[in-house]
């Protein structure tokens, strides 16, 4: 078999066989096929697309390029969630303990942030001594002992995806639904959880900017998960504004703690309930979502979910004092108020632009080598549709460099649009995709 023939077949609109897909993935991973040939194939895929069978075969080939994580020694139906990335998305830190407190094993291998979207591991490392690198034995033991384990992915999971993504990134072939879905799902399916809920973000702060493309991505990923024999459900959720109020690592951890103590932002808590109820039903803990929501609210109101977060931190060698007294979390030297000079209603706030402001402050990474300032970030004081009076605080900027803070303060004034009240109320969840089809909400 020649790579030339594989490229030509896809260039001419043909359907690649499983054998051809396995051939190019295996040989590219092993260094036997040069970048320029794979770049040509990626461009052919970009223009001519892949069908469902090709996409599933590509995903399987990427999974088979490296290690898989066997979780069969963990008792019960194991659940996981994945977000396609957003601003202020600290969902795992609150949701995981909520689900675990209901008696369902929540097992997750997470990543770090790059660009304007934050990473769960970076946020957890705001907690002193919290260990994100666990051995397989520690991961399994924690899941069996306390129903929750969150750690970093091993380097040997889906090495083909890492190579292909790096090449896609420099050849303008990232924005293809099959390639995106295969990349995301290969990493999820290499880890042996039994059920997955996908949080597919849509809006200004998301990878998918419009609902149609977000639904297509959700459908593709659910098809892959289902084809792989995993229970998979996707929710398409709003990322036109940041989730909750806090954007930035230690600030988001504090907001997750507040949420587990019953004092979190309404949208963030509601998203945790929406995703969590799906997970409890998939884990057969509850027969329906109404019952599941009640169970989740009960573990929050009783303090059991908060206690589970303390257990998670303790089991992963972190200092629980940082949870019990969040004032110990990394704090910026300066906190500057951004006040409104007009009155009206918040019409919009571009989530990506807010995320980039946090990036300027040091809360994110420009490159993989960038050092993160765990204390930096933005805490919004108003959300879309809120009433604003002249002089009201719109946001608090947390930082350690006054020049950068002044730049961000100026930016936020232009990002947060104030005017007449919006005609339609904003939505948190736009739709659901499962193996039976798509339902708009």
UniProtKB/TrEMBL annotation:
GO terms for molecular function: 1,4-alpha-oligoglucan phosphorylase activity; metal ion binding; thymidine phosphorylase activity. Keywords: Glycosyltransferase, Metal-binding, Transferase. The keyword Thylakoid does not apply. The keyword Transferase applies. Its EC number is 2.4.2.2. Pfam families: Glycos_trans_3N (PF02885), Glycos_transf_3 (PF00591), PYNP_C (PF07831). InterPro entries: Glycosyl_Trfase_fam3, Glycosyl_Trfase_fam3_N_dom, Glycosyl_Trfase_fam3_N_dom_sf, Nuc_phospho_transferase, PYNP-like_C_sf, PYNP_C, Pyrmidine_PPas_bac/euk, Pyrmidine_PPase_CS. Residues 345-419 form the Pyrimidine nucleoside phosphorylase C-terminal domain. One of its GO terms (biological process) is pyrimidine nucleoside metabolic process. It catalyses: 2'-deoxyuridine + phosphate = 2-deoxy-alpha-D-ribose 1-phosphate + uracil; uridine + phosphate = alpha-D-ribose 1-phosphate + uracil; thymidine + phosphate = 2-deoxy-alpha-D-ribose 1-phosphate + thymine. SUPFAM superfamilies: Nucleoside phosphorylase/phosphoribosyltransferase catalytic domain, Nucleoside phosphorylase/phosphoribosyltransferase N-terminal domain, Pyrimidine nucleoside phosphorylase C-terminal domain. One of its GO terms (cellular component) is cytosol. Catalyzes phosphorolysis of the pyrimidine nucleosides uridine, thymidine and 2'-deoxyuridine with the formation of the corresponding pyrimidine base and ribose-1-phosphate. PANTHER family: THYMIDINE PHOSPHORYLASE. Belongs to the thymidine/pyrimidine-nucleoside phosphorylase family. Homodimer. This is Pyrimidine-nucleoside phosphorylase. It comes from Sporanaerobacter acetigenes DSM 13106. The lineage of its organism: Bacteria, Bacillati, Bacillota, Tissierellia, Tissierellales.
């Amino acid at each position: 078999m020649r790579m030339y023939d594989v490229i030509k077949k896809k260039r001419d609109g043909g359907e690649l066989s499983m054998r051809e897909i396995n051939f190019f993935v295996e040989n590219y991973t092993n260094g036997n096929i040069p970048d320029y040939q794979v770049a040509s194939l990626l461009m052919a895929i970009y223009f001519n697309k892949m069908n469902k069978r090709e996409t599933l075969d590509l995903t399987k080939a990427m999974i088979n390029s490296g290690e898989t994580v066997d979780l069969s020694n963990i008792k019960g139906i194991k659940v996981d969630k994945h977000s396609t990335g957003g601003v202020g998305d600290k969902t795992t830190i609150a949701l995981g303990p909520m689900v675990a407190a209901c008696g369902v094993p929540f097992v997750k291998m997470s990543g770090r942030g790059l660009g304007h979207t934050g990473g769960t591991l970076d946020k957890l490392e705001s907690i002193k001594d919290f260990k994100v690198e666990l051995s397989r034995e520690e991961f399994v033991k924690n899941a069996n002992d306390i129903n929750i384990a969150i750690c970093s992915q091993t380097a040997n999971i889906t090495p083909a995806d890492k190579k292909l993504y790096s090449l896609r990134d420099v050849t303008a072939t990232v924005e293809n639904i099959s390639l995106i879905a295969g990349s995301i799902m290969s990493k999820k399916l290499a880890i042996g959880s039994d059920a997955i809920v996908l949080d597919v973000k849509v809006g200004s702060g998301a990878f998918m900017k419009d609902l149609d493309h977000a639904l297509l991505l959700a459908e593709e990923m659910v098809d892959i998960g289902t084809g792989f024999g995993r229970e998979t459900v996707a929710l398409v959720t709003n990322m036109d504004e940041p989730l909750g109020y806090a954007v930035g690592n230690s600030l988001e951890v504090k907001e997750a703690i507040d949420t587990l103590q019953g004092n979190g932002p309404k949208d963030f808590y509601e998203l945790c309930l929406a995703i969590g109820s799906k997970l409890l039903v998939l884990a057969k803990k509850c027969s329906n979502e109404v019952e599941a929501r009640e169970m989740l609210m009960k573990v929050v109101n009783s303090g059991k979910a908060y206690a589970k977060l303390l257990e998670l931190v303790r089991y992963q060698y972190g200092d629980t004092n940082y949870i019990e007294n969040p004032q110990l979390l990394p704090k910026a030297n300066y906190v500057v108020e951004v006040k409104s000079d007009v009155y009206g209603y918040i019409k919009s706030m571009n989530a990506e632009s807010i995320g980039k402001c946090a990036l300027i402050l040091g809360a994110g990474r420009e490159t993989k080598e960038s050092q993160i300032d765990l204390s930096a970030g933005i805490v919004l004081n108003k959300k879309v549709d809120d009433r604003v009076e002249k002089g009201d605080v719109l946001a608090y900027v947390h930082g350690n460099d006054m020049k950068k803070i002044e730049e961000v303060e100026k930016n936020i004034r232009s990002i947060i649009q104030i005017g007449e009240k919006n005609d339609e109320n904003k939505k948190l969840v736009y739709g659901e995709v499962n193996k039976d089809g798509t339902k708009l909400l």
